Amino acid sequence: MDLRDIRKDYQHSAIHGEDFPVEPVNWFREWLNEAMESGEPEATAMVLSTVSAEWRPSARVVLLKSFDDHGFVFFTNYLSRKGVQLSGNYFAALTFFWPLTERQVRVEGIVSKTDEDESDTYFYSRPLESRINAVISPQSSPISSRTRLEEEREKLLFDEGSENISRPAHWGGYRLIPDRMEFWQGRPGRLHDRIQYLLEGNEWRINRLAP
Fold first, then answer.
1. Which entry of 148, 190, 205, 208 is annotated as an active-site residue?
2. pTM, full prediction
3. What is the dihedral of CA 160, 161, 163, 169, to 10 degrees?
4. Is 190 one of the annotated active-site residues of the chain?
5. pLDDT for 172-188, tens place per residue?
6. How far is residue 211's CA from residue 58's CA, in Å, rounded to a whole number?
7. What's the CA gap between 71 and 193, in Å, rounded?
């Protein structure tokens, strides 16, 4: 198989004209809804990109759990690799790709931790096994074996007090406050549509970019 011969000609939709929504979050909401309605299997999955103290980029897929005019929220272990990187460099990027609607959204901005109440609310809404796994997993750290993790999980899972397990201090939410967003729509012949929002003061400057 020659990878150079693999290509898809995007035909699903187009971004016409130059009259775009004033607020990019409103447009994102429309596109996310359309992705979910189209049957996209993981519409809230996004690639989170961070940078280490040595300026090495790192990326992984996480799940968007809420968003509004104040930013995009996800949850994780603060001591994980991404957590450590965000503690040293609070600039990060998110990338959504929805192949069924042939769209991509890129979000860049500053990340900060959510308050404890927001982290608690989400943690206690999770299934018991997910809460237990957040407690026992030293995320991103080497472990001696998977068996030991599974034994710790089983021990807590069948403990009489497991339903009352507390959110660990090392686990919680982050909010990315965007200052740049880009909406990408695939078009035939690779002449794609790209609309960029760049925050200047309190207003968004909107430009159509060359593909």
1. 190
2. 0.92
3. -150
4. yes
5. 999 999 999 999 999 99
6. 25
7. 24
